[in-house]
Amino acid sequence: MSSGHIGRWRRPIHSFINHRPASWKDAAPWFIRGCDGGDQRSCDSIGRCFFLGGGACGDIPKDHARADNVWRRACDGNVGASCRHLGQSYENGTGVPKSAAQAATLYKKGCDLGDKEACLSMGELYEKGDPAVPADRKQAVAYLERGLPDGPTLLHYGLALVAGTTIPGDKARGVQLLKASCKREKHFEVKSKPGCDALAKRGEKEDS
Hints:
The protein is mainly α. 66% of the residues lie in helices and 0% in strands. The protein is built from twelve helices and no strands. Residues 1-22 have low confidence and may be disordered.
């Protein structure tokens, strides 16, 4: 698991910003208005700008505490992605005190609300373990299964099954998931294709 709030995310905030149209900068003020008016999904969106600051979001300054505050509001309003974002802040101690226990609570809520990446984050937390959240292979697998068929979960779960270190190994299933990840990467024509690269490294053929 890589350290740092941004680097840790399988589909991090910076990729969200980079894949938005050029009008994102113009949309940011409207997200602020929407959030101030009680629209929780607008809070989730503008929280990403507060977290990164500048760039495609225009002249919005970086403010992790403000990002966490709006994500908390959105999570309380049952926006699963915001629960995940806030959980990642707690796991990494970004803008809030570091707390794996609080992160787990938020990941579980986000997963229950249908955010697949929150399920992945909870699975990863159970894989590596923490004094407040002991490693649990069975629970890790259960949450990774709930994270399917989301792209980041396909890749992470596939690699974990092939390696068989943090969860029980199953090479055949792992390769199957990596092939699904590779197919997804090609479909969306992304520049980086880690699923395809993992197959090539292992001498496995991609599905046609």
